[in-house]
Amino acid sequence: MAAIEIKGFLQTSFIDWPGKVASVVFLPGCNYRCPYCHNHLLVTDPQKLISFEMHQVLQQMETLRGWVDGVCVTGGEPTMNGGLVYLLEQFKKNNWEVKLDTNGSRPQVLENLIERELVSAFSVDVKAPLEPIPYRRNAGNGSDPELVRESLEIIAESGLPVELRTTVHPHLLSLSEVVRMAEQTLEIFGPGRNHKLQQCRVDDVLDPELKRHEPLDRETLDQWSGEVRTLEALNAVGVRARA
Q: Which domains does the chain have, with CATH numbers?
């Protein structure tokens, strides 16, 4: 059994699991280096953060039984942690549903968790179109979009609920790339999938150079999100027409 290190714990969150109230557990370490990462201490310097024991987390969650629906396991990148299976087994043993946040870089780990029935839902951070150049620009040189594609296909095949999320900064991602990415995820999941664009915050990010570039304003982000919704609507009409 690999040791599990928990580097953050929120008792309640209304935003981390769509439609549910969830506790949130943060695990350290990540194989990506996204310039806009705002949890970068978890990635580069987790020893500066206090640790939580597993029994402490379970005890605190027990006091919330009947109010909290489950737990969101996030990071960093949780699939990098050798103790992840043990952690999820403890939540399952205590009758807590789990949503796993992931960058999709380790499809075999996701497949194993699905086979063990340790996860009830996923959030996947899709960084860019599933192509090497934009992916490396948004996630670092070690990122491999083909592994992300494989993860998305595994999750789609499982039928488990999934939220796709993309953080948008115009210095890193263009509208045409956002549309291309939306086309790719539609091809994998079909219409009805939830793909959310998130506004990049530059106040505290991994790459301080990003602060020199203006982030996308809310109005423009809404316009870009509208392009994604329009694409999905047209896809849905096409599916019905072929039926």
A: 8-12+19-237 (3.20.20.70)
